[in-house]
Amino acid sequence: MRDEQPNVARMWDYHLGGDRACAADRRLADAVTAACPEVPLAARANRAFLGRVVRHLVDLGVRQFVDLGAGLPTGCDTHALARGSRVVYVDTDPLAVLHHRVAVVGNPDATVVQADLRDPELVLRHRDVRHYIDFARPVAVLALAVYHLVPDVEEPAAGAAVIYDHVAPGSYLAVTHGSADESPDRAARVGRLYADAGIALRPRSRAEIGAIFGRFELVGPGLVAVDRWHPAAPRTPRTPAGWYGGLGRKAGL
Ligand SMILES: C[S@@+](CC[C@H](N)C(=O)[O-])C[C@H]1O[C@@H](n2cnc3c(N)ncnc32)[C@H](O)[C@@H]1O
């Protein structure tokens, strides 16, 4: 029954002000917000980061994007931000995949693949990914607000290392990630709420998030609070505590 199990993609949509959450999603999302009032703000700041980082990459000449853990489309998604670029959305969630499939109908440059980013080889070698993305040319891989849903300590860094080896020099990895650095008690409460709903959450420290980039060299302001990252666009009113974002580049071009 759709209402029984909260779903992170729909909860994220709810935090962003969307209308696709069911009662179970809303209950858990409201409890999360009660435990940590910054979460909806962090969700919006995270999407604003997506907008800035994609526009920045387009300005740098990047025309290919793989958006891992894409979530539900918001109407301001990677293919809309990077018009004319090749975009592949990846998510494990059939609902997120379905919604993105509808969002890209009629767009010959964008597609969506249902796959688990914890198997990066499978994602990168997926027939549809290879059809849309030319890995001999620079590509930007986006992993926004998703690696904290991968509980294994080493897995995101190991996955990013596989991505690094697969992409051409001049490629990029963008990551945003929740941390418990600023308020460990709140993060622990949120973690327990998710765990009670059967969803594993692993906030990482800023140092652990930095380690995910591995050989990708951090560019711009480095790994900073998401709304501090190239804040040329209008700022969100407050910096969400402990929500980091960064962009790494594979050197060589
Ligand atoms: C919080 S949403 C983030 C959506 C979007 N990236 C953003 O920043 O607004 C996380 C998404 O990651 C997806 N996800 C979680 N674990 C995943 C995995 N192992 N592989 C692929 N997608 C995953 C979820 O289904 C959900 O749609």
Automatic annotation (TrEMBL):
A Pfam entry, by short name: Methyltransf_19
SUPFAM superfamilies, A to Z: S-adenosyl-L-methionine-dependent methyltransferases
Name of the protein: S-adenosyl methyltransferase
Species this chain originates from: Asanoa siamensis
InterPro entries recorded: SAM-dependent_MTases_sf, SAM_dep_MeTrfase_SAV2177_type
